[in-house]
Amino acid sequence: MFTLASVLFGCALGVIGMTEQFLPDWLKPFARRFAFPLSLTFLVLGVGSFVSGFNQDYELRSPFREFSWGIQFPVTTRVPDVDIRFVYPLQPAPLLVNLSTVPARDIKWNVELWNLDQPPPQDTPWNPLPIPFQMFDFVRAKDYGGPEDIFRQLGSNVKKGNRLFGFAGATCPDCADTRQIWIYIDYQVNGWYAPLPKDQLGKLNYFLQNIRIIAANPSAIDNLVAPSLRQPIKDSLY
């Protein structure tokens, strides 16, 4: 409202200044001295207010900047983005990696692994190893948290050479998304992990419904996770 009034008032004063010869004698001194400076002032205030309001509204409403010639520049989203990865091939441990430029808080992460070499009785559900969901207070921007020891309390549930296969994930209340990975561990030997994008959740459901088949046929894992996507677990991320 202030913007519109400023522009209209400025224009009116400008018109008065430019049509001085048509004004009554008593109004001409005012027009000579004040009309043009005041009109310019109000026009500048009005246009400036309009531009400021437009920019604020555009920043709030638009997910990208679009110019008249059609070029789009994505706006950088300052939200946390936490990934989960593994280090230490002999005793794999998850790391929480903050990929964003802002801190990530209250991170919830989980690792679900099945010991493919210790199947339960035929009529018994095959549950994952007892690794509980975990919380991590915060990870600074472009930093990592951990590594976290997930094997300390498993005891006789795992032995050297056991094949452990499953998935892991991490997210937080303000995170851009939940990130998940496949994870394979040849316990105390080596292992690998690979991305598990949302468009492959059907493969995850297949695995959960056919664990016995996959355990008996190791090559079936290749159908779930292409070897080219696998990242070997190393002593560091780099």
Question: Which CATH C-level class of the largest domain is it?
Answer: Mainly Beta
Beta-strand content: 25-35%
Report how far apart the termini are: 58 Å
What is the subunit arrangement here? Answer: single chain
Spatial arrangement of strands, main beta sheet: 6-5-8-9-10-11
Classify the helix fraction into a percent range: 25-40%
Care to describe what's here?
This protein has helices spanning 2-18, 28-61, 201-209, 211-216, 220-224, and strands at residues 64-66, 72-74, 82-87, 93-98, 104-115, 134-139, 144-145, 163-171, 179-186, 190-195, 231-232. It starts with a helix and ends in a 6-residue tail after the last strand. Helices cover 30% and strands 26% of the residues. Helix 1 (2-18) runs antiparallel to helix 2. It is built from five helices and eleven strands. It has two domains: 2-74, no CATH class; 82-232, Immunoglobulin-like. With 238 residues, the chain is an alpha+beta fold.
Topology:
Layout: H1 2-18, H2 28-61, E1 64-66, E2 72-74, E3 82-87, E4 93-98, E5 104-115, E6 134-139, E7 144-145, E8 163-171, E9 179-186, E10 190-195, H3 201-209, H4 211-216, H5 220-224, E11 231-232
Antiparallel strand pairs: 1-2, 3-4, 4-7, 5-6, 5-8, 8-9, 9-10, 10-11
In summary, what is this structure?
This protein has 238 residues and is α+β, with helices and mostly antiparallel strands.
Based on the model shown, name its key terms:
238 residues, alpha+beta, Immunoglobulin-like, six-stranded antiparallel β-sheet, 5 helices
